Amino acid sequence: MLDEQKRKEIVAEYFRKVNEGDIDAILTHFTEDARIEDPVGREPRVGRAAQREYFHSNVAAEVTVNPGHASVGQDGKQVAVPVAATMTNILDPNRTRTNINAVDVFTINADGLIEDMRVFWGMSDIGV
């Protein structure tokens, strides 16, 4: 079980790597069989190939994230972070930027790797 500060550091480092856009570096934060559900309610992406595809689409959309204060669960595994994300609409010829407010919830294993990431957002959380 990892202490609270270590879990917060792992998630902060993950967000730094997302903003840098280095897919291989991002993937080092996940287990091989990690599950990503973004948004919650859609079919989860499971495994390295699905993770790579997910982050490739984020990099293509020039996603940037501004994480808020991370809160941890007392279970030694969970971290929840409010996130303001901005991305390019790659289908729009004007390449407009879209904002999404979300809450990312991570499960981190004893080795410090993310084994589950759930991203909560709805249509009312999207703005231009």
Helices and strands in order, then pairings?
Layout: H1 4-20, H2 23-27, E1 30-37, E2 45-46, H3 48-60, E3 64-67, E4 71-72, E5 78-88, E6 97-108, E7 114-120, E8 126-127
Parallel strand pairs: 1-7
Antiparallel strand pairs: 1-2, 3-5, 4-5, 5-6, 6-7, 6-8
Walkthrough of the structure:
By secondary structure, this protein is an alpha+beta fold. It has one domain (4-127): Nuclear Transport Factor 2, Chain: A, CATH 3.10.450.50. The protein is 27% helix and 38% strand. It has 3 helices and 8 strands. Strands 1, 2, 3, 4, 5, 6, 7 and 8 form an 8-stranded mixed β-sheet that branches. Strand 1 and strand 2 form a beta hairpin. The longest helix is centred in the N-terminal third of the chain and has 17 residues, at 4-20. The chain is globular, with a radius of gyration of 14 Å. It starts with a helix and ends with a strand. The model has no long low-confidence stretch (mean pLDDT 95). Pfam families: SnoaL_2 (PF12680). GO terms for molecular function: isomerase activity. Keywords: Isomerase. InterPro entries: NTF2-like_dom_sf, SnoaL-like. This is Ketosteroid isomerase.
